[in-house]
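Deviations from the work plan: none for this task. Representative record:
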Amino acid sequence: MKETKIYERPKSWKKGVHTHYCPGCGHGITHRILCEVIDELGIQEKTIGIAPVGCAAMMYDYIDVDFCEAAHGRAPALATGLKRTRPDQVVFTYQGDGDLASIGTAEIVHVANRGEKITTIFINNAIYGMTGGQMAPTTLVGQRATTCPEGRDPNLAGYPMRMCELLATLKTPAYIARVSVAQPKYIIEAKKAIKKAFEYQISGKGYSFVEVLSNCPTNWGMQPVKAFEWTVSAMMPYYPLGVFKDFDKEAE
Amino acid sequence: MAKGRVEVLEEYCKSCGLCVAACPMKVLRISEKINSKGYRPVEQYKEGCIACKMCAMTCPDAAIEVYKIEDNQ
Ligand SMILES: Cc1ncc(C[n+]2csc(CCOP(=O)(O)OP(=O)(O)O)c2C)c(N)n1
Ligand code: SF4
Ligand code: SF4
Ligand code: SF4
Ligand SMILES: [Mg+2]
């Protein structure tokens, strides 16, 4: 009888790490597939991540590549400077929906429109996780949060923002896709999209953006498995998965 | 079908149950043990693993290693 190890912790997942994330949080899954992509592309020594303000603020302690920590919403500006001064490096921002779609809205629109050769991983969990569950621009209509205890009212807060669709109206970005980490079949596709986004950056095609529909079991007040069922049943109908812009397809 | 087994890195497991739900063969469960963080780590409690890696792919804490077993008659 012969045994072969076919899955182990990714090489760029720091040794001995216990993340601070709540049990079953999609940040961990996204970090893990990000590490797998970094390993598969062999770019660990030349990758610089920009950590956000939000639950992922300490991701530099978990992923073994160089990191900078941005002020809230300002990761795209920091990434722009880094990439322009060090074009040989692979630069990515990792941002939550509060970070990217509220305080950082101007930054994200312009980094995409300038076509900076960087990659953004956008974690949409429809809430401000770190600060205790306030309404985000992506909170669904009727979804309860501490700042909308009766559920989001579109008359007061507008409808949830679809960032992929919004950014896809711009001519410059090279790749815009929405994926999810809710269940294995979605995780496989999410990893492929993240890999493609990095490949587009490396080959100089331009700006790449991957939105990840995630969860926040703690602030949604659900068990992790139930929370990811909600990602599928409630988030996906409003935030359809798919590719919204693809440089290669447009070139055809 | 392929044969396999998993090794749970018990200290990293947070008992979230995502792998238990993801396993198509239903060979995983939350154990009665307790790790130093106070979580009950998952265990493979019966034969039947097909080395599909669904559990490892779902784990937010990279707490699962998967092995493929080859019978060389
Ligand atoms: C300038 C500034 N304003 C507000 C805050 C408080 N703050 C910390 S994290 C956060 C939002 C986090 O939500 P999100 O970006 O969705 O990340 P998540 O925790 O959900 O992953 C806010 C408003 C801050 N740290 N800095
Ligand atoms: S608060 Fe929510 S987003 Fe933050 S680690 Fe916990 S589950 Fe994840
Ligand atoms: S590898 Fe597949 S069959 Fe084996 S425990 Fe994991 S999910 Fe279940
Ligand atoms: S998915 Fe990982 S952390 Fe969650 S119960 Fe399974 S082994 Fe433990
Ligand atoms: Mg959020």
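The domain at 3-69 of chain B is CATH 3.30.70.20 (Alpha-Beta Plaits).
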